[in-house]
Design a protein that fits this description.
The structure is a single chain. The chain is of the alpha+beta class. 28% of the residues lie in helices and 22% in strands. The radius of gyration is 28 Å and the shape is globular. The termini are far apart.
């Protein structure tokens, strides 16, 4: 603030406004804000634009122990879809009614959408097959103990949207091998996780012999 200004001007300037000699007022521009949220992706817009879960779907969520707060926070929707092999699905009018849940990466970007038939949460599938984990941000937060792992996306929701659910066992070990320890839902699940996260066996490697040496042998 300029010390040579009159007291009334200095007080007005401190408040963010000032009257000039001609009687006009001006308001100081706010400090620049460089924080911004990423633009909603096409995946997010398409999934969020589907129907709100039906009564049957909401009943299935609540029966599984999913709190209403989590249902609202995660923007769960319902759509008619078609399921394919290798846990893939796509939108299909007239198809199977399914619940949709967006999968975000560690930067909060929607990279995939998981879906499952309302009555068969164990038959979940991915839309783009790009997501490896549901709840990836849990790996980058301070932990008092092991991170809770869930068998299904519905189980992840029932756990309050905390922990992780492995969506791609083929590549999950690359992401989780340097992360915090995991805890399974039960002993059988813990054994499944241990086998799932073991790195693949390296290929056997041999030394080729020169062709003339092989002929001599």
């Amino acid at each position: 603030m300029n010390a040579h200004l009159r007291p009334e001007i200095r007080s007005a300037e401190a408040a963010g406004t000032r009257s000039d000699a001609d009687g006009s007022d001006w308001t100081a521009l706010p400090a620049p804000d460089f924080s911004f949220a990423p633009l909603a992706s096409h995946l997010e817009c398409e999934a969020a634009g589907q129907a709100f879960p039906s009564r049957e779907a909401l009943a299935s969520l609540r029966a599984a122990g999913v709190p209403d707060r989590v249902i609202a926070d995660q923007i769960i929707t319902e759509a008619e879809v078609r399921f394919f092999a290798r846990r893939r699905w796509d939108y299909h009018p007239g198809g199977v009614p399914a619940l949709l849940l967006m999968v975000r990466d560690s930067f909060a970007e929607v990279v995939d959408v998981v879906a499952w038939p309302i009555a068969r949460p164990d038959k979940w599938a991915r839309l783009t097959a790009k997501a490896i984990l549901l709840g990836e941000d849990a790996l980058h937060q301070p932990q008092d103990g092991p991170v809770a792992a869930h068998r299904t996306p519905l189980g992840w929701l029932a756990g309050g949207g905390r922990g992780v659910c492995i969506l791609d066992p083929t590549y999950a070990w690359k992401t989780l091998r340097t992360g915090p320890p995991l805890s399974g839902e039960d002993l059988a699940h813990a054994k499944e996780l241990q086998a799932m996260l073991a790195p693949p066996e390296p290929p056997r490697v041999f030394v080729r012999q020169p062709l003339d040496r092989r002929k001599a042998a």
